[in-house]
């Protein structure tokens, strides 16, 4: 997950594993942030390790927040054939009218833009934070094996729903990040999980951490 405080808004990108593990609550305590401070939650996708932190039982953890995700992602996980007791259904029910869809390539909250990055899931979405000339793309699960997938972007993971689309999206983002020198962050990149992309041998790339 990522917490963005920008232009007076507290935005949470993904919500981690909740009580199943992760550092969401300790991070909130360290930063002296209250759940009520979060006005928007942006979801890269609806895998459990990204949405479990949104609910406590059947109650929303962030009562004042809108939860936004791509329409394709919502439709895939909330398909009527899926059990109503599934985690995505529980999240949608907990947030009710505040569980909403977004469009790609739009400013979804001030200074944060949605970026199509489909493949890992049906509607996997990245979010690009823009401040003047500085750009940071919060790219969710665009890679799950950093060393392998930067060097060989065409290598998709077992958990990628559509391996071909995932590979295309991954190379597109890496190519742009390298050319435009924009920072990228990935959920499964080792801490701090943020860095820059550089061209490497054999038409591959290398990830250079900010640390």
UniProtKB/TrEMBL annotation:
Domain Metallo-beta-lactamase as annotated: residue spans: 2-188
Alphabetized UniProt keyword annotations: Hydrolase, Metal-binding, Zinc
Record keyword Zinc present: yes
Pfam families membership: Lactamase_B (PF00753)
GO MF assignments: hydrolase activity; metal ion binding
Domain of life: Eukaryota
Family listed: Belongs to the metallo-beta-lactamase superfamily.
Protein name (record): Putative twin-arginine translocation pathway signal
